[in-house]
Amino acid sequence: MTDLLLPAPVTAPGPARLRAPRRPLGRAPHGAPRRSPAREGAAMALVAMTSVQLGLALSVGLIDAIGVVGAAWLRLSVAALVLLAMVRPQRLHFPRGALRTTIALGVATAGVSLLFMAAVARLPLGTATALEFLGALGVAALRSRGPARLLPLLALAGVVLLTEPWSGTVDLVGVGFALGSAACVAGYILLTQRANDAVEGLSALALSLTVAALLTTVVTLAVSPATFSAAGEVLVLGVVAALLLPLVPFVLEMMALRRLTTAAFGTLMALEPAIALLVGLVALGQVPSPLAVVGMGLVVAAGVGATRTGARV
Hints:
The chain is mostly helical. 72% of the residues lie in helices and 0% in strands. The protein has one domain (37-309). The longest helix is centred in the first third of the chain and has 51 residues, at 37-87.
C-alpha cells in the first residue's frame, strides 16, 4: 500500500521512442516511390487472368478424361479444401447479410465454372473468353462515370475484332453457355466486392468456394456419377488445374477488388480475351488474324485506361 504513495522514480533522459504513423493504402514511406492502389490492383488482375487462361488450357485434359461437369467439380472441390484448411472460416464471423452475400457468390462461382467449361468444349478459347467478358463489360458500363464511360466501348470494339463474328458459323449452344457464364461473371464481380467490404481476409472466398463445390457435386451426381470413380486417375492434373483456376485467380481478384472500383475491374477484364489469344498462339498454335491483333491493341488500351482511373476512394 505504501508503494502507491511513493513518487515515481526519475529516469535519465534518453531518445524518445516514436511510433511510426499509419499510412493509407498505396502510400509509400517518405523518399520511396509511391505505390498506386489502382496499379497494384491492375497487376493482381493481370496475373489472375493469365492464371485463368493457363488453367483452362490445362483443363482440356480434364475435360477429355472426366467431362465438362467433372472438370469443374474437381477444380472447385480441390480449391475449396485447400482454402478451408488455410482459413477455417467460422459461422460467427459472418454477419447475416454477409453470409447471404457469400452464399450467393458461391452460386455465381459455380455458374461461371460450369457454364464456361461447357462453352470452351464447344467454342475456341478466345471466342468463349470474349463472350464471357460481356458480363464484366456490362458492369463496367453501368458503373463508369465521365470519360471513363468510353473505355467499355473501346473494349467492346476490341472484343468484336478479336472474335470476328462475321467470319463463319458459330455453335449457338456454345454461345448460349458463354453468355450464361457472362451473366454469372457480372454477379461474381459485384458480389465479390460486397463480400470484401463485409468480411476481412479470405473467409468469404473459402465459404463461397465451398458452396460452389457442393453445388457442382450435386450436379455431377445427377449428370455423371461415374466421374467420381474416374477422378482418381487425373487427380494430380486436377490439383494443378485447381491452383491455376480457380484458387490463385480468385484470391488475386478478391484482393484486386479491394483496390479497384467494379467499373475499372470490369474494364480490365477486357484484357482476358487478348491473353486467351496469346495462350492459344503459344499452347495451341492458333495464329491470330491482323484484325485480332488490332482488337488486342484496343482492349489493352482500355485496360491501361482502367488502371489510371479505377482506384477506389
